[in-house]
Write a structure and sequence with these properties.
The structure holds 2 protein chains of 2 kinds. By secondary structure, chain A is α/β, with parallel strands linked by helices. Chain A has 5 domains: 2-131, Glutaredoxin; 152-361, Rossmann fold (3-Layer(aba) Sandwich), CATH 3.40.50.11540; 371-454, Ubiquitin-like (UB roll), CATH 3.10.20.600; 459-547, de novo design (two linked rop proteins); 557-627, Alpha-Beta Plaits (2-Layer Sandwich). Helix content of chain A is 39%, strand content 14%. In chain A, helix 7 packs parallel to helix 11 (233-247) and helix 8 (172-182) packs antiparallel against helix 9. Chain B folds into 2 domains: 2-60, Arc Repressor Mutant, subunit A, CATH 1.10.10; 72-150, 3-Layer(aba) Sandwich (Glutaredoxin). In chain B, helix 2 (21-32) runs antiparallel to helix 3 (37-47) and helix 3 (37-47) packs across helix 4. The longest helix of chain B has 12 residues, at 21-32. The radius of gyration of chain B is 18 Å and the shape is elongated. The chains are: A alpha/beta, B alpha+beta. Chains A and B meet through helix 2, strand 10, strand 14, helix 18 and helix 24 of A and helix 2, helix 4, helix 5, helix 6 and strand 4 of B.
């Protein structure tokens, strides 16, 4: 083991030199989310300015520390000062920060999120004391945004691969025992105890076994795995090595979706470096254990998150699930025992081994141990990636960490578990977030997507959205899922357009139960959850849609209409110019009117109407007869059917 | 001839095993921008499976396409966070501005418009992806300006 010790020693020294050096360090968060907000432009400003002045600023591209709302995020450390983490650092703000804090000595407190490390700066709170971070317990994310993910030494300097070293000194059964004692359950969705899965595979006969890391994060509204792979890929590789050792596998695959090009890039770099350090392939660290890892790119199929479909996809076939048993732990990839673990599960494994099971289980509830990352998104003020102890309440997550709803609108529901999950209403906000409570509420933990919805979200439309998704993503193998989800989507479409009948609500529920009971794989078995939870908690909204033909949230187009208040309209003609179907008439400075027969309810007029006049109004319900004039001029000779 | 050479160059880094099929399709698509029918025939021969099997796999995954793509490839994220923050309207504005529907390419092959299940930048929703680059915090107005009539000739 002395080989790795020497490498780590060197890495620690290099890291300490970096921290205590006389130069300025600038950490730019260039994960996908940072880039989309303009991080690369900010990076370029720092780079060119450093060059122009011949300054020895150390520019380091890091992953993301989580607060998406503050992107692009840049941390600046001057010697003998704590590091300052800045928000919304566009190219322009980068120049301001250079002027004020690097050339001058004004830390620009109004742009700072917080300080990191020892020491204080007036007017800037320590980052981890701010509301966003205070309730968090950062373990799997602890290095994301603070180290260079393309530099294995940064990972090593923080104890990286220590869990692997410890595991290699144990018997594989002892490693499984450690994971058992930690209480770790799968972080990808269903929450099956990780150790038990491993034990099945370990006990399965056969020389050849496989380990697969599932990085196919297909749930819309979730990006925990992407962020971890982009910010700290080695933590996942280490977990894979430990898992491979425990189950007796020599080959590992990472199945990562193609929609994550940067994660794939970072993984490739990490694998090369691990190989260079003797942490992969033959006789790892002289232990006699050999393990290699290959990356497989997904090609855009949600169902491939399901274990047996994922296996088919790795084998180069259509990603169709097959009945279980046999479970993959007994017969998986090419008929060999195979374990499929989620990215975050594997990152947890590295930590459990490096520390100990009790350390891991210090947080959490009786049956849900440890911490979990969540993508807290939707209509929340401070969306981002957070890591919290299991058992925290939804209210703490949404209101303390997330800062409440955008525009202080009323909270309506939070959607967890993606298309397999459900919508949880306001009166369950004090429910603890753990596997069993979420299941009892009709949803699931899932991989960690948490989409907050405000009063302007229509729950019938949300159910329609998810069933439309499920119906498109159904692989078509089994009838209940293929035809059932399609039927659910069609009824929901009817409900959203005012064509459903009162009996349809019960029909939706009945059909849902049938699909749950009869589908082959997890996708079909859980696809009705968004329908069932919205009926359970928001039945009244369905009834209003169906009986009164109204969409109270003003989302469903067929169940609302627009009018221009003649008292408020200034005749600015903006709406007239933007109407794509020329449904608006009116002279300049005269009140305008909407021709309801032409109007497609796209809402363009509503969007452009200046806030000062606020004349375009959105009204729930269908257009009253009084608003539609007598039929217009007779149809032209071509005989086009009249629109109704 | 030229196409054959490009195809051979892609094949050179593979052995022709069935489990490489998806990766081969991805590389061929990266090379040509789509999967030409001649390439499909050659892939089948290279991997040693019937052409129908290659089509079976290629049509299963949403990533693959059989027609050339526009120079500007716009993907509108349909993720949950984007949906509740107005993605349907963004798609509608784009369809209007570009004069094509989701899944289509403009006749001058300047723009292709597609949707994607989720880009994974949910904290900055709604987003679109233009030529693999994520553009965040979109609004109907922003996309209208970005792809408005004036932008028709613009190269992104």
């Amino acid at each position: 083991m002395s080989e790795l010790d020497a490498l780590r020693q060197r890495a620690v020294e290099a890291w300490e030199r970096l921290q205590s050096g006389q130069g300025v360090r600038i950490l730019v968060g260039t994960a996908t989310c940072g880039r989309s907000a303009g991080a690369l432009e900010a990076l370029e400003v720092f780079r060119s300015e450093a060059q122009r002045r011949g300054a020895d600023w150390r520019l380091i591209e890091v992953g993301c520390i989580g607060p998406c709302y503050a992107e692009p995020i840049v941390c600046i450390a001057k010697p003998r000062r704590p590091m300052v983490c800045y928000q919304s650092v566009t190219a322009e703000r980068a120049r301001q920060l250079i002027d004020r804090y690097l050339d001058g000595d004004d830390p620009a407190a109004e742009h700072a999120l917080g300080t990191l490390g020892d020491g204080t700066i007036d007017g800037i709170p320590p980052l981890f004391e701010t509301p966003v971070f205070k309730a968090q317990v950062r373990r799997t994310l602890r290095l994301c945004g603070l180290i260079d993910p393309t530099n294995i030494d940064h990972y090593l300097a923080h104890g990286g691969y220590g869990g692997l070293e410890k595991a290699l000194r144990m018997q594989p059964e002892e490693v499984i025992e450690e994971v058992k004692r930690s209480g770790l359950r799968g972080r990808g969705g269903a929450g099956f105890p990780t150790w038990r899965k491993w034990q099945f595979c370990r006990d399965a006969p056969g020389e050849v076994k496989y380990l697969v890391c599932n990085a196919d994060e297909g749930d819309p509204g979730a990006f925990m795995n992407r962020s971890l792979l982009e910010g700290d890929p080695h933590s996942v590789l280490e977990g894979m090595l430990v898992a491979g050792y425990a189950i007796g596998a020599r080959h590992g695959y990472i199945y990562c979706r193609a929609e994550y090009p940067l994660a794939l890039e970072r993984l490739a770099v990490a694998l090369d470096q691990a190989r260079g350090y003797g942490l992969l392939d033959e006789d790892i660290l002289g232990s006699g254990f050999s393990f290699d890892i290959q990356v497989k790119e997904g090609a855009g199929a949600f169902v491939c998150g399901e274990e047996t479909a994922l296996i088919a996809s790795i084998e180069g076939r259509r990603g169709m699930p097959r009945p279980r048993p046999p479970f993959p732990a007994v017969s998986g990839l090419w008929g060999k025992p195979t374990i499929i673990n989620n990215v975050e599960t594997l990152a947890c494994v590295s930590l459990i081994l490096r520390h100990d099971p009790e350390w891991f289980a210090r947080y959490g509830t009786e049956k849900s141990k440890g911490t979990k990352t969540f993508a807290l998104v939707g209509n929340v003020k401070r969306p981002g990636l957070v890591e919290v102890p299991l058992g925290i309440t939804l209210r703490e997550m949404i209101f303390d960490i997330g800062g409440g709803l955008v525009g202080d609108k009323r909270f309506k529901a939070v959607q967890t578990g993606g298309p397999s999950g459900g919508c949880i209403p306001a009166d369950l906000l004090d429910m603890p977030v753990d596997y069993d409570s979420l299941t009892a509420a009709g949803s699931i933990m899932g991989s960690g997507g948490m989409v907050v919805m405000d009063e302007e979200t229509c729950m019938v439309d949300v159910a329609r959205y998810f069933l439309d998704f499920a119906q498109k993503e159904s692989c078509g193998e089994c009838t209940p899922c293929r035809l059932g989800t399609r039927q659910l989507a069609a009824i929901l479409e009817d409900a959203c357009s005012g064509k459903a009948t009162p009996e349809d609500i019960d029909l939706l529920a009945e059909l849902s139960e049938g699909i749950k009971a009869g589908s082959l794989c997890g996708l079909g078995q859980t696809a009705p959850n968004p329908v069932l939870t919205t009926i359970r908690y928001f039945r009244q909204e369905y009834e209003v849609h169906i009986q009164q033909k109204r969409c109270p949230a003003l989302v469903c187009r067929q169940l609302l209409w627009y009018r221009i208040d003649p008292e408020l309209c200034q005749g600015c003609q903006l709406c007239l110019k933007h109407c794509p179907v020329e449904a608006i008439q009116g002279e300049k400075k005269e009140p305008h009117t909407i021709d309801q027969l032409k109007c497609t309810r796209c809402g363009a007029c509503f969007e452009v109407c200046p806030p000062k006049s606020h004349a375009v109004q959105r009204i729930p319900g269908q257009v009253p007869a009084t608003e539609t004039p007598a039929p217009p001029k007779p149809a032209p000779a071509a005989g086009l059917p009249e629109e109704t | 001839m030229e196409d054959t050479r490009r195809l051979e160059a892609v094949f050179a880094s593979f052995e022709g095993r069935q489990d490489e099929l998806i990766a081969i399709l991805q590389r061929v698509q990266a090379e040509f921008g789509y999967l030409p029918s001649e390439a499909m025939r050659r892939i089948a021969r290279f991997v040693g499976v019937p052409e129908s099997s290659v089509y079976a796999v290629a049509t299963f995954y949403t990533q693959f396409r059989f027609t050339p793509i526009g120079r500007n490839h716009i993907m509108v994220c349909r993720g949950t966070s984007c949906h509740v923050r107005g993605a349907p309207r963004i798609l509608e504005v784009l369809e209007k501005q570009l004069g094509i529907r989701e899944g289509e390419t403009t006749p001058d092959r300047e723009y292709s418009l597609e949707t994607v299940a989720c880009i994974g930048a949910c904290g900055l929703s709604p987003c679109i992806m233009v030529n693999k680059r994520v553009e965040a915090r979109m609004s109907p107005r922003k996309v209208a300006q970005r792809f408005g009539k004036a932008a028709q000739g613009e190269r992104t």
